[in-house]
Amino acid sequence: MTYDETTLAQLTEDAAAIIARYPVKRSALLPMLHLVQSVDGFVSPDGIQFCAEQLELTAAEVSAVATFYTQYKRRPNGEYQVGVCTNTLCAVMGGDRIWDELSEHVGVGHDETTEDGSITLERLECNAACDYAPVMMVNWEFFDNQTPESAKQVVDDLRAGKDVAPTRGPAKVCSFKEVSRVLAGFEDGRGDEDQGVGAPTLAGLEVAKEQGWTEGSK
Amino acid sequence: MTDLVPVLSATWGAEQSWTLDTYTEAGGYAPLKKALGMDPGDLVQAVKDSGLRGRGGAGFPTGMKWGFLPPDDGGPRYLVVNADESEPGTCKDIPTMLSAPHQLIEGVAITSFAIGCNHAFIYLRGEVVHVYRRLLQAVREAYEAGHLGKDIHGSGFDLDVTVHAGAGAYICGEETALLDSLEGRRGQPRLKPPFPAVAGLYARPTVVNNVESVASVPAIVDKGVEWFTAMGTERSKGMGLFSLSGHVTCPGQYEAPLGITLRELLEMAGGMRDGHELKFWTPGGSSTPIFTQEQLDTPLDYESVGAAGSMLGTRALQIFDDTTCVVRAVTRWTEFYKHESCGKCTPCREGTFWLTQILKRIEGGRGTEADIQQLLDTCDSIAGRSFCALGDGATSSIVSSVKLFREEYEAHVEQGGCPFDHSASALFEYSDTPATEEAHA
After folding, report:
1. CATH says B326-425 is which class?
2. Domain ranges in chain B?
3. DSSP string, B15-26
4. Which of A127, A130, A192 is closest, CB to CB, to B127?
């Protein structure tokens, strides 16, 4: 491993905190791979070695797990993972067109990263926001009801170094490494940040209010 | 007209709806205190009596699942909440956890007490980071308030809750694949039996329940079994979130008694988008056979939807209007299953690959009449022959759409391409110039 002393000490401390959450330590592997990505920006050979040593597994066992899951990246990832949902519903509602225009605009295809290392594009599978279709995700934050123009604007702003807010979520999109640390189970203090609850989430509640239907309410 | 019944969604519109304060003000955690004063066996019985059925798709009675745990042998037993919401069209658990995470945490505490679990896990898909923030925060708040931890409210009951983020794999929504994943392995389904109730997480007795099932428990404890059973139909009790998406005027979450119809829901949602008619829809996500206008009045409960040839699934109503090419829709779903097949069993791994090849050929106008039969034959080799339900689900939309819209498949073959203008289906305007192949690379 080529981690410097400070990095390795921090990683080891974080790994111990993750392992302590589980009765059996192998369960810590998925969050630890997120942790590795928070330091290296991808699942690096060093990171695999680190996880293997911490969890008393072989590097092959760790690699076998890492390659199964799409969120673990095998090459240095862009600072922003931009995914356009092209599963059926989003695709039909305009996701295919958003993808085509965005991909052409940015100049890279699926699972490719721009030369400046800022953007990795991805054709996403369903991200459980179908009532907000067409949907785009940036570092796993929701960008709802997108158009080709809005999607290109988001990416342009990110590349220009501006703060960009999702439509539902925190005040700004954090970097891939920052978000990976959250996914390792470490709070970043942004839980109370909010862009407002979207209309589709409240659609039924609004109808019930208008109609005075309250039987179910507390 | 069936009334909507906001129970889980009741507080979603409140200021800072996700905080402990908001939840407590609305009466939250009173059911936990009530439950802690009850006999665990009575709690299990109450959930059995309520008729609550798993809200994750399969519809298995929740109380019965709890009751399958073997008698206490002194070792640990676990509750694992399936929060890996990934079925295309399904978008109910994410808003629940984003807007009211404490509903789930309280449900976890009550369920754990009922089944004798001292360490519960919430397995959340990894691609929703703000939901993870809210859950981590809610668990921390609950510990601080004494709703979790040691000797909860003086009851002598201890409970730890770990919220675990997955890393992008649809198959982990399958309960045994989820358990393997939670154990730090590739998420591949296990052979059943043994069922998780007997040998689940770390080979210990385990209950795996969906978010919405667990989040429904506090209300049942609070308002009583009779309140719950007064809603719904004979064998499909209670309320559920119906998620409308697609070509409707007001897509979103509509919480209603089971048995409501799409016609009623559509009316509440402002109908189809202007100038268009309903063509086809999924009652319960992409793994459920598609319906058409014929089923507008089918009660959306487990039995009626089953009798009409599909499944209630997750009540993920994906609605497509007359501009939508059914071959395009089905091809895309099939590509999804191919991508998400875990590779463990041959029928699913190979079958979804070949289905995709054939469908893309037909959609691209290079198919033959024989390809349509080949599709059905290949589906026959997968459905009922794959290791888990993913393979079955992959065939649902194909078989049902060929049955309902065979002429559309034939039109692709005869015309050598898609007869539809895809831009007409989009929510924004653009001219339908052919997509560059490079953009799909």
Report:
1. mainly alpha
2. 20-229, 239-321, 326-425
3. TTTTSHHHHHHT
4. A127
